[in-house]
Amino acid sequence: MTSTQDETTDIVVVGAGFAGIYMVHKAHELGLNVIGVERGGGVGGTWYWNRYPGLRCDVESLDYSYSFNEEIQQEWVWTEKFPKQPDILAYLEFVAKKLDINKDFRFDTEVTGATWNESTQRWLVDTTAGSIDTKYVVWGTGMLSIPKIPNIPGMDSFEGELLNPATWPQEPVSFAGKKVAVLGTGSTGIQVIPIVAETAEHLYVLQRTPSFSLPAHNASLAPERVADVKSHYAQYRAEARTQMLGCVTETLGQPFAVMGEELARAELQRNYDYGSPMRFASAVVDTVADEAANNFTASFAREKIRERINDPAIAEKLMPDHFITTRRLCIDTNYYETYNRDNVTLVDLRDEELLALTPKGFRTAAGEYEVDMFILATGFDGVTGAISRIDVRGKDGVSLSAKWKEAPASYMGLSVAGFPNTFVVTGPGCPAPLSNVVLSIEIHIEWISRMIEKLEREGVKTFEPSQAAEDSWTNHVNEVSDSTLMRFATSWYVGANVEGKARVNLVYMGGVAPYEAELTEVADDNYRGFELTR
Fold it and tell me: 268 near 284, Cβ under 8 Å?
């Protein structure tokens, strides 16, 4: 549904992914008028746009789903351990229909700007279908929704197919009989590379930074397993909510110094055999904080990589050299085995720099390569990228993108000083990027809804966090981060993958359960740190 007429509402929700769907539903429960705006043609968020072959979530399906509605979680049936993109999209479409929220969204409509009106104490949200006057804006634009497109000389001259996984065509793409290049070996590249190799005449993998990846051991979910979880889903969800990563990991919860090498190796092997980045990262509980623990875990992972690759020289080129878990820990199906194929060539860009795309392929410092298709698996402008591309103007006309260019910051990962009556779901300074993000979203939406209910009940006209509160939380985020090995990170977790982006830790490293406890404490203390006006 679209509209060319200006409208007035209580809440504008931007985005129709997990956050947008739940927020619109909560607005219904609050008895408030709501308009959702989504640039895609339907619900799904990142799962609407990302459709590349091999795409799966790296959180198990029984965790990567809403917990707030018992009927939904009992009725929906997941069929695989790790859900594939079509299944996640179908699930979100099912939920949207069940909750009857599609009627509230303006699909195929893009938000182009949002301006705070000091005289009316309201927002004017500009879209491609008209403007909306609203009291509240909730940004549910996603952490990984804006692809990072590299500026490679000659891109416009390439005569073949140039594809980006984040905007993959909805119609099938054939690799059969083609020479294909994939740039990037992060989570996306690791998923798409084995699929391409199966039918391509030849595949060139252009590696910039090696990643740690574990075998997913994906399989169909046994009906007995699904029935068991559903029989005590509330208890299962409650346990997940007490975990650092927001999902059940069955960790012993012991640091490396207490475990010792023998037990640590046994736990790493047990979780490696299970196949889950969340469980593996939790096997030795201080992997991300203690250098000795990290080195032991990383050595184990490197050993496993070597076992999967026939050529020792290629294995060494694929060996990561960063602290494990300070970049995304990936899972795969036959990723490393792909390099054992005769039709696959690894092009290590640390040895031969990528110089340009050419009409017929690409050129490196070592020579020319001819390809028919070039796939840019080059990642995302994480956490702040989507909102920063919208012209959001707060008090005194201050630009949010300009503020975040200096240093992305928020109060509690939820709200930004100088931008009244706005919430940013999974914003900078929350644990969502290193968690089961669906639970992190639920925590945010439920907290936001509780606050809005209070504001409406008490006749509060505006709220915003004080600059002092935002600074205090940002300092806390940095202090916690600096106590871990994330202080050495060179990944999107700290904005290091985007040229010109401020290098700050975007992730609260304290974990999901402690973070939710801090959120609850703020709410119970009459929303400490927020300035309310009536």
Answer: yes
